[in-house]
Amino acid sequence: GAVVSQHPSRVICKSGTSVKIECRSLDFQATTMFWYRQFPKQSLMLMATSNEGSKATYEQGVEKDKFLINHASLTLSTLTVTSAHPEDSSFYICSARGGGDTQYFGPGTRLTVL
Amino acid sequence: AQSVAQPEDQVNVAEGNPLTVKCTYSVSGNPYLFWYVQYPNRGLQFLLKYITGDNLVKGSYGFEAEFNKSQTSFHLKKPSALVSDSALYFCAVRDMLGTALIFGKGTTLSVSS
């Protein structure tokens, strides 16, 4: 199947700093990318949907100024957590979809804000 | 609004026995249904999907799922469980017009030897 990578896999940062997470589709062009957040032993909560070259569509309750999403190319989307706080600590997972129906998921990024 | 229900937080089976992980859904129009598996601290791996066609869908690692429109269900099954099948399983749905998948809460499958 299609491969989606995320970098970094784990990041620890101080409160107030910004963190950027990259999501890449390695062997297909992703017309749409999605960012999810997962709390321990819970389901995935959709944060936003982004289409290449367009502004991301954020889900209700997700602060667009705090979680900046850029989908500059058909193989790369980035999520920047600005002015991170301990409550932003979570497992962030991206997924990508090309021309088909299946979303393929990255391995996730564990963010810990001290 | 679309929604997915996985009524069981945990399913326990013995190795070699058949397993079923339940999923029901609610969506406008025809559903696009998916099963994913997640191992600890990892992303989600695609198992199988139903879009149209035969109600019984076969997927990776010997898993299959049966689409039942009247019961709005899409239960995941495997004839003979392996210890290595132990993981967290997610059912997901989207409608024909939707984009992002909506996930159930997940079911932890534990297969004992």
Features:
heterodimer, A: mainly beta, seven-stranded mixed β-sheet, four-stranded antiparallel β-sheet, 0% helix, B: 113 residues, mainly beta, globular
Please trace the helix and strand order of chain A, writing H or E for each element.
EEEEEEEEEEE
Average of pLDDT of chain B: 93
User: Helicity range of the residues of chain B?
Assistant: under 10%
**Distance linking N and C termini of chain B:** 41 Å
User: How many individual helices of chain A?
Assistant: 0
What would you call the shape of chain A? Answer: globular
Structural class of chain A: mainly beta
Structural class of chain B: mainly beta
Low-confidence stretches of chain A: none
Biggest interface: A-B, 24 and 20 residues
Number of strands of chain A: 11
| Spatial extent as radius of gyration of chain B | 13 Å
Radius of gyration of chain A: 13 Å
Report on the architecture of this protein:
Chain A has strands at residues 4-7, 10-13, 19-25, 32-38, 44-51, 57-58, 67-73, 76-81, 90-97, 104-105, 109-113. Chain A is an all-beta fold and 114 residues long. Chain B has no helices and 12 strands. Chain B is an all-beta fold and 113 residues long. The termini of chain B are far apart. The mean pLDDT of chain B is 93.
How is this structure best summarized?
Chain A is an all-beta fold. Chain A is built from no helices and eleven strands.
Write the layout of secondary structure elements.
The complex is a heterodimer of chains A (114) and B (113).
Chain A: E1 4-7, E2 10-13, E3 19-25, E4 32-38, E5 44-51, E6 57-58, E7 67-73, E8 76-81, E9 90-97, E10 104-105, E11 109-113
Parallel strand pairs in A: 2-11
Antiparallel strand pairs in A: 1-3, 3-8, 4-5, 4-9, 5-6, 7-8, 9-10, 9-11
Chain B: E1 3-5, E2 10-14, E3 19-21, E4 24-26, E5 31-38, E6 44-50, E7 56-58, E8 64-68, E9 73-78, E10 87-95, E11 102-103, E12 107-112
Parallel strand pairs in B: 2-12
Antiparallel strand pairs in B: 1-4, 3-9, 5-6, 5-10, 7-8, 8-9, 10-11, 10-12
